[in-house]
Predict the structure.
Amino acid sequence: MGPRRDVRFVSSGIKLPRASPAHALLSAALPFAHIGRAIDAAACHVAASFPRLPVARAETAAAPLPRRLGKDGGEERVLISEVAVRGKDGEPLERPELEEAAAAALRACRPNAALTVREVQEDVHRVVESGLFRSCMPVAVDTRDGIRLVFEVEPNQDFQGLVCEGANMLPSKFLDDSFRDRHGKIINIRHLDQVIKSVNGWYQERGLTGMVSYAEILSGEILRLQVSEAEVNNINIRFLDRKTGEPTIGKTQPDTILRQLTTKKGQAYNRAQVKRDVETIFTMGIMEDVTIIPQPVGDSNKVDLVMNLVERPSGGFSAGGGISSGITNGPLSGLIGSFAYSHRNVFGRNKKLNLSLERGQIDSIFRLNYTDPWIDGDNKRTSRTVMVQNSRTPGTLIHSGDRPDHGAITIGRVTAGIEYSRPFRPKWSGTLGLIFQHAGARDDQGNPVIRDSYNSQLTASGNPYDDTVLAKLESVYTDSGDRSSTMFVFNVEQGLPILPEWLSFNRVTARLRQGYEIGPARLLLSASGGHVEGNFSPHEAFAIGGTNSVRGYEEGAVGSGRSYAVGSGEVSCRMFGPLEGVLFGDYGSDLGSGPKVPGDPAGARGKPGSGYGYGVGIRVDSPLGPLRLEYAFNDKQARRFHFGVGHRN
């Protein structure tokens, strides 16, 4: 008996249609998600044919009549006497393991089973979803023993090689590892689907917009994967009004913004990279709001990036106040007032101009800074700062404790210099500068003096003023901006004796801070030290003691020396709201170098040269930084309040 073609159930082969690039990049569906739809189409063909299976009629006298059984939930059941798996041409498969795989996928279709259309449909699903076959055709054959159900399957081609196109970002090793053990074996659609999911996942994990948009088998049994990666086409800048949100004309030059971006035209669109670029624009300090919106370009795989910018006011005046750390006596003598003008975006190039004046009863500082955060034509993000400063500060840090019949000493400095800074490794930055300083001491009448009331010299040269040209080199490591992170600063300054009377010395300093989170508390350890070698001014010695050094002592009261070392430990815990409680301990020493300072000002004043302090404090967060109020004891059993603004140095 031949096959009954009027009851042949056909499942069409699985095809992988090409998706348009724009649709592929915006769709979350995988390229093989339509396999189920192809199977459903075949199942519909089965449903249309299976119920029409007639009661077998014997074409010869020997042919038995097949039986139609009862209904199950509205579906007729037909008795199947035999189930077999064959190739597309009806012949046995060349690879027995493929026949076994197809047979193993069958669940309902068993010999002497009464089957419904739905059960045949489900087994067609299972055979195709095994991933090894490109088509499955259930064929009913009328035999003497009953209906024989044959699943004619067409295996997929063997895998002999891979071609991947359009994957500019994807490492070739990623696909090599995925197909390492598949050479010469049947292409398994389920495995291929997993590979495609992993490729798409690789892009998603890295913030990239890309996916496999098409797959096909070429001649020679070569598998071809087409990857679509979103490519940045154009980057457009649009300034918005701060009040209305409508487009307006910006003050910032567009190339000043574009040079800050690591995302460039022609690169793969990376969402994580774009987010970092937004943060970079914010750090310029000239923008109030920054957003970047991707827009598809037609049917291509390219996107335009539209950057919406809201500028901050670029300049203005400000006034404030503070406390001088060099004044320790009197309730109001340490107060200072300040007045400043700043411009954040000079010439629309993000250049910074700051002009400030600070004035107290003794202190006075005039400062002019002009900073170019990124020099034109430089590709290393090198910044340049030009600085001019004229200051008068108390000399009490080194020359404190003068006799009552002598007035206070102040140190006057005129400073001018230029510095270049740039990042040179992740988390590392460096600064190179050249600074000129003209400094000397004055009495309370403003007259130059070269010796104090203890007959200690106040200048290194013996003249009313010391002149110095300093070459500066500084390196800074910061783990992050958090106070529990690591910070290390190393600084070297070399005095250049360009003229014979100019000072020549070498000064090296280092600071280290390390924070640890311990449950709800935070432990902060810090250490600093330094050494000066050569001929330097006494007021440039390292002063030890005070709010930012050893608490419990007045400013500079522990000692002053050519060398120093200070260590500190703090345990802080959030109490409520912005209020934080602190326990601390400090220790500092001049390492026996006090007598080596010209004039030995520390020895003349009987400073101990070393000491420690400990105490408690509270801190309150503010726009200016933490406000610190601390009560400390020292090793002499003296006690003292300390008040400071900002973090300790």
User: Anything to note?
Assistant: The CA atoms of residues 191 and 298 lie 33 Å apart. The radius of gyration is 41 Å.
